[in-house]
Amino acid sequence: MDIPNPTPEQLAIIAHPLKRHARVLAVAGSGKTTTIVLRVAYLIKEMGVDPRGIRVFAYNALARDELRSRIGQLLPNKAEQPRIDTFHSFA
After folding, report:
1. 8 A C-beta contact, residue 49 and residue 21
2. Cα–chain-centroid distance for residue 14?
3. Are 52 and 24 in contact (CB under 8 A)?
4. Which of 2, 20, 64, 66 fits a 20 to 30 Å CA distance from 75?
5. Mean pLDDT across the chain, nearest whole number?
6. Can you tell me the distance from the alpha carbon of 41 to that of 31, in angstroms, rounded to the nearest whole number?
7. Distance CA 35, CA 41 (A)
8. How does pLDDT run across 51-79, given as a tens digit for each residue?
């Protein structure tokens, strides 16, 4: 995965303070998945968050697989990867 230069808006989400809620609203193709992938990597690598404390949800299996692939490219060590589910498989 080529890591893009995040926009200021994406950087604000990636580095959003821990334990504070954030809502991200954006149109299709605006980089939401990239932002989520970079946020997960930031939390684990920069903030020292235990990956077992992170849960990533996707709407369908295709989106889940894309997230797994892209996060796996940034965090190749399986022990550093969080659990990624669809809403359906989690429920």
Report:
1. no
2. 9
3. no
4. 20
5. 92
6. 15
7. 10
8. 999 999 999 999 999 999 999 999 999 99
